[in-house]
Write a structure and sequence with these properties.
alpha+beta, about 400 residues, disordered N terminus, about 40% helix, two-stranded antiparallel sheet, 7-stranded mixed beta sheet, about 20% strand, 12 helices
Length: about 400
Amino acid sequence: MRQSSTTPNAAPDDANIGMRAALTADSTDTPSGDMATSHPVSRVTPADDAETAGSVSARHTAGKRGRQSVDRGLAATIPTNYLRQAIHLRALSIANRFRIIRTIDVALHCFPERPFKAALTAAQNAMRKLKKEKLLLHYRTDRFQHVYGLTVAGARWLDDHGVDAAASVRRCADMTNPEHALWMHFITIACEVRGLAAHTESEALQNLNKGRKDGEPVKQGFLDVSGKKRSLLLRPDVLAYEPDGVTWFEIDRSKRGDDREASLVALVQRIGGKIATGHVLRRVVVHAKTERILKRALALVRAQVVASNSQPLTTGSRAFHEIDGGIFEVRALLERRHPDGRTSLVEQCVGHVIIQLLPTWLPKVRLDAKNKHPLTGWLGENYLPYRRPSAFGPWQPVTSPLPDVVRNLTS
């Protein structure tokens, strides 16, 4: 740690000595017996003095009136020590859940209602305090990503606050490139701050096998589809549960091979059907890391648009229409029962395919003049966890989760 250099408040002693010496010299320059000539001194009449004080007081009062009150946010209604404790609990809880986190995850999990720069600043301050208290340990991966793991002291802190926890520093030390897992965590948190229940791939599999009896085989996937050369059992990177069904997230960090491209085409063809959990698959969201990966995913779905437009829609098939850049509407023939007992097939929208870029620029933002990355793609826009089609209306504004945490801590 660098030692901080402080500037003394008092003047050095030689300055006082020099001043006293100058005064002594002035007093001894007057010849003995002669009266020293006094210099004229400006005098202020009492009336002028009163006027000057009045004008100063008026200016001071006017300045006070013009001063604006500072918005202290949650600190205006909640004691700061309770807020600090709530932030610690939220940040350490996701470190315990995901085993490895970034500062941007804390910004999203603890301060979703703030603009991006304010949320990132608050998250950086929180991470500094957690590191200083040795509750989190900082690592830098081979790809120069700054990540954090939960220490033994951090796990003990969570245990003291009623959360079962285990340290994750050993696992973090063994990771070389956890980029895919980090983005899974980020999208999962984005879904949850929007009010949706969401699971990562491992959490979704655990939930799928929760009621498994002894002797039953373990379920390894959610959809069984035909690939280019073999049958494939598909699992989502993130699975979000919404009122009308589930949203399936794919995080494409690298270009898909032939089998993975075929699996994506087969996946979007199953929109409107049920997955292994019994929920209806309503949306498939592809988050692409680069423009090249994005264009290839768009080309695969646009090929389905051309193929569906060239032939009539039949039972079990899907029709695709691009309603916005990267947003595709999926339509199918559904059976409708009439009051008189007759049935008919009606074409209806059964879901959407949404393809967009991962917000890889957000973790690279710097809070100074050297920043060269955009600040777009935060929760104030229609981007996270996915671009919502206009037919469903905008996302509901997010609110701070900290007041609820404080109430639980103080109850």
